[in-house]
């Protein structure tokens, strides 16, 4: 939605909605260790999530489903109507929400589901990273991008840079990461458009 994160960090800005204080505190502590995600707001219920999504314009909304005043489904409907570029990630152990996620993706909305905040993909255990020669780095990134769903790929150049850095275990210098993205642009895999929006040809 808005420009993600602090200048130069490439961090996605996240708003999370949950009516349990202990969950909100735990997620804040969890995300404090993540360089790619920054909490910019908390909501106690769905109504507040809608209001804060409008004012804060986060890149990611982590949404509980059962909340007072307005549940997560209705809040998501309102948020995505006003901001279709928002990436909403439902957090629930309940079954049956795969249909809702699939429906949202069919409308080209960004959605996913996890059983708990700790199991979100961007908070999952770190993978082992192999050393990739400079000449093979662009192809390595292309392979990784192809394994991702279209909705989960970075939508801003800054976030793409951060994602590419993460693919190499954040072992590359900033200039090396920029060089990989430049190669992706040159070979037509990535196109950067208005407001640094990113599209892919994979």
Describe the structure.
The chain is of the alpha/beta class. The protein folds into 2 domains: 12-123, Rossmann fold (3-Layer(aba) Sandwich); 134-200, no CATH class. 38% of the residues lie in helices and 17% in strands. It has 7 helices and 7 strands. The strands form 2 sheets. It has a 5-stranded parallel beta sheet with strand order 2-1-3-4-5, sandwiched between helices. Strands 6-7 form a two-stranded antiparallel ribbon. The longest helix has 13 residues, at 174-186. The chain is elongated, with a radius of gyration of 17 Å. The relative contact order is 0.12. Mean pLDDT is 76; it is low at 1-9 and 121-128.
**Mean pLDDT metric:** 76
CATH homologous group name of the largest domain: Response regulator
Helix content: 25-40%
Total domain units: 2
Question: How many helices does DSSP assign?
Answer: 7
Shape designation: elongated
Q: From the alpha carbons, calculate the radius of gyration and give it in angstroms.
A: 17 Å
- The CATH topology annotation of the largest domain reads as Rossmann fold
Strands in their spatial order, largest beta sheet: 2-1-3-4-5
| N-to-C SSE string, H for helix and E for strand | EHEHEHEHEHHHEE
Largest sheet: 5 strands, parallel
Per CATH, which architecture of the largest domain? 3-Layer(aba) Sandwich
Structural class: alpha/beta
Distance between the termini: 24 Å
Enumerate the spans where pLDDT stays under 50 for 5 or more consecutive residues.
Answer: 1-9, 121-128
Percentage beta strand: 15-25%
Topology, number of strands:
7
User: Which CATH first-tier class of the largest domain would you pick?
Assistant: Alpha Beta
């Amino acid at each position: 939605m808005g420009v993600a994160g602090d200048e130069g960090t490439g961090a996605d800005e996240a708003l999370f909605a949950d009516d349990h204080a202990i969950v909100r505190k735990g997620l804040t502590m969890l995300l404090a260790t993540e360089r790619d995600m920054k909490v910019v707001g908390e909501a106690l219920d769905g109504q507040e999530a809608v209001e804060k999504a409008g004012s804060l314009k986060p890149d990611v909304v982590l949404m509980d489903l059962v909340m007072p005043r307005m549940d997560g489904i209705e809040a998501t409907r309102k948020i995505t109507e006003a901001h279709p570029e928002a990436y909403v990630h439902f957090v629930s152990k309940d079954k049956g929400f795969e249909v809702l996620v699939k429906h949202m993706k069919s409308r080209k909305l960004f959605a996913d589901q996890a059983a708990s905040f700790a199991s979100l993909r961007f908070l999952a255990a770190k993978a082992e990273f192999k050393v990739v020669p400079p000449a093979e780095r662009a192809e390595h990134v292309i392979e990784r991008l192809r394994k991702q769903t279209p909705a989960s790929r970075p939508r801003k150049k800054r976030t793409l840079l951060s994602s590419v850095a993460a693919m190499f275990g954040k072992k590359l210098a900033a200039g090396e990461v920029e060089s990989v993205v430049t190669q992706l642009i040159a070979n037509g895999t990535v196109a950067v458009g208005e407001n640094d929006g990113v599209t892919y040809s994979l």
